[in-house]
């Protein structure tokens, strides 16, 4: 497949996580009808998971290009993704990704794109593009508030972060520092990758609710921050998920919570028990998707007490590994989202008008949860001082958001934010296109 003449050839290099590849693909789709030809560069296992989303409508404009990582011990090709990756192999995957730089260099020579868009942890991508006089721009799939706080903390500024509503509790700070210290290489690559972005940084956000954080971030990095919108994946074909949809059809409007902690965090047995007890205590209908690391021979029966399933009966449904998240959140019976507050899930809640019961687990999620509470989109289930989940607090937060009068302001705010997002349409994309075209013109 060759790009048409006069189109802008754009090479996208997302990190190997679904929460990164999905927004990159959504941006690619929005650029296809604006004279861009997109090359999406990722591992075969990741490309196979998005192939079905590159429908015939986009097949002439979005080309999937395979990235073959070097062979490393304990990292066979089906582990060339963070989806279901056992946590102890995360740094091995990051190392393999960095080792693929020479292959990326050859791809640049072969495709000769006009522009490269790369992710948060890849300074080498921008460096190699620059060596061939190809402008490279970073697309960050985190909130502007999180990025700004992270940079503020890393620069050891004496003054406090100017937005006290975004903060980390002590146990969250310790967890984050541990994750950063365990990253491969001497320097955490985020700062270097950010510095190498040409003139602008694209951020998956909207000025309407993150304007002040975007402006502060722009001052910190001395680059223009360009919002790209929510980049939420469209719902899939309802017929594929008939059983789940029929189950929801039998529930009353806004009576059910969807429970999911993303594709990269695996609950411990203790956490599963706390969530199960919280759901039972709440007396609210639920659909709960539980995931396990790939290769581990564990099933729901091994971790969820049979007596729990008997007691909740028809008011609860547990799915293993995967659920049609967008379809469930869009369903009229869904009244709350018990979420880890990954940024993609945060955006889906906002787009579909479903309030969040926040149960952040690690990295950026605690800060996203604070933002959800601050803008009125959600309520956080309070943990104990050591960061342990508390069943009673989970139940309390669920009841407030879904059932109680005290939760009406949150429900109302979720509806208002959804209406605002859907009215905007692709407003941000016009600004993105203008910036990208300008960069290509200044090569």
From TrEMBL:
What GO terms in the biological process aspect are recorded for it? glycoside biosynthetic process
Which named protein is this?
Glycosyltransferase
A single Gene Ontology MF term assigned here is: UDP-glycosyltransferase activity
What EC class does the entry list? transferase
Q: Which Pfam families match?
A: Glyco_transf_N (PF26168), UDPGT (PF00201)
Alphabetic keyword roster: Glycosyltransferase, Transferase
Q: Which residue ranges does the record assign to the Glycosyltransferase N-terminal domain?
A: 8-226
Which Gene3D superfamilies does the annotation name?
Glycogen Phosphorylase B
Question: Which organism is this protein's natural source?
Answer: Nicotiana sylvestris (Wood tobacco)
Q: What is its EC number?
A: 2.4.1.-
Q: Which family does it belong to?
A: Belongs to the UDP-glycosyltransferase family.
Lineage, top-rank taxon, reads Eukaryota
